[in-house]
Amino acid sequence: MLNTNRQSASTLVEVLVAVSIIALVLTAVSAMISMSVKLSDSNEKKQLALQKAQEALEFFRKERSINSWYGFSTFLIDSSRYCVSSLPEEVASISTKLGACSDSDLLEAARYSFKREAVVNFDGNDTLSVQIDLKWNEGNKAKSLILEQNFENY
Q1: 94 occurs within a structural domain
Q2: Is there a domain that residue 5 lies in?
Q3: What residue numbers bound the domain in which 83 lies?
Q4: pLDDT for 33-45, tens place per residue?
Q5: pLDDT given for residue 9 in this prediction
Q6: Rg (CA), the chain
């Protein structure tokens, strides 16, 4: 008579190997999810920074298009930095923003804080460039985004 009542049981070693493999896979998946969330947050900040830098350049483009060259360029000082955490109503009032942004001059957007500055350089009498410098912190790293636009007397 054959013994058909065989039981197979997992040994302790087999169970430990299976648990180790599952733990390894779960660790890799959780690390991947963590990195994905971190990259998503970083990309959101970069996108928002680009949007806020473009917003400041659009202010200068608008002012140049509605003012004469004299009305636009007269109020800007060569080789100067302006804090544009909030955009002025018109370029004539930008002189109140002269100087770099302090730690209290932050541009709050979504749940992030940025420093937004404009640097104006005259390239002769009929050309000037406006450079928007947007800065923020990401963890313990300082990040920066720079956009530049040239304006001409036409």
Answers
A1: yes
A2: no
A3: 12-152
A4: 888 888 888 889 9
A5: 65
A6: 29
